[in-house]
Prior knowledge:
A hairpin with a 2-residue loop joins strand 8 and strand 9 (291-292). This protein is α+β, with helices and mostly antiparallel strands. The chain contains twelve helices and nine strands. Helix 8 (250-285) runs parallel beside helix 10 and helix 10 (331-355) crosses helix 12 (384-396).
Amino acid sequence: MSGLPTADFFDFESLLNPKERAKLAELREFLATEIAPHASDWWNKAEFPAHILPKLAALELSTPAQRGYSNLFAGLVIAEMTRVDTSIATFFLVHHDLFVESLYGFGSAGQKDRLLEDAANLRITGAFALTEPGHGSDVAGGMETRARRISSATGKADNGGDAWVLNGAKRWIGNGTFCDYMLVWARDESGGADGLPGAVRGFIVDASLPGVSRSRIENKIALRTVQNADIVFKDVHVAEADRFAGVSSFEDTNQLLRGSRIMVAWQAVGQQLAAFDVARQYAVERQQFGRPLAKFQLIQQQLVTMLGNAVASMGMMARLAQLQDEGAADMPQVALAKSYTSARMRETVALGRSILGGNGIVTDYRMAKIFADAEAIFTYEGSYEINTLIVGRAVTGVSAIV
């Protein structure tokens, strides 16, 4: 609001260089004109606005760190997108921070030549198929999707063959209903010397291949614009050339998950910025008992708590971005950021919803949508509890996860 401080009360944005600040301003203008007026309608209808992808691509914000921007800028991009619409930010995160980053990090030269430019420019879209119907937090050890290496000439198992057969199921796959390609994680059936299932492999799977079936998950109360899918693979043949040669174990996927977990923590920041924006405007404009809500002491206390939560979360994330720039951010630090910011987010959006009273439960006033979407952020990319236990293991040397 004109003349009042922004939710970035400590001005973390000033840490960006002039080029980054200008680009962030360009993003804000795009979000204000192309997304904000329509986001609630898309959410209510559970429709994904595919028509905006060319305009989003024109901003040239795919994987900002790969383009020479700082990690702080990359995080603020996600926070600003989330501030306007969590669903669009989630689409962007899944496609760019998981699919495109995977191509950068683990794709072969041939895979990059074939897919990277189109993916970075949103001419093709991607998904990251890891979570399964029966395995979320324990997917590393419990993964049931299997890959069997075969000879395409004979169709028989062959450890030196030129193809793979995938069988299994994935769930909660963002962008899964409409993506062109998906990164599918499966356990090698060949097993190890101990007779246990073998290493986790990654595959670039064309979503139109025979044996791939996709269905949208319905009746969600959060991220309704995002098209999450149940995906089933039944004897899906994938060429050896489409296996991620750079992935040899689940530990390799942790590099990608660490980065995406950071971006989800930035989403928790963006949700708080959004909640503060909406709650403050409402408190200043809404009249009760002959005066604005903002004139009541308890309302001011709630707004200040929301602001403090947002600033503390931004401070943690700004420092984490510096550690990323130094190549020093480890998984326990990332887990603390995700658990802490998402907990503060939950409190912040609840206070914001309370300030709006009855109007806080209808999407006309945005707060209901912000409140509902926060629940998804609290859970995905490692639930609050799992991230807490990762940090607990780091500070005690004892694992309480299993």
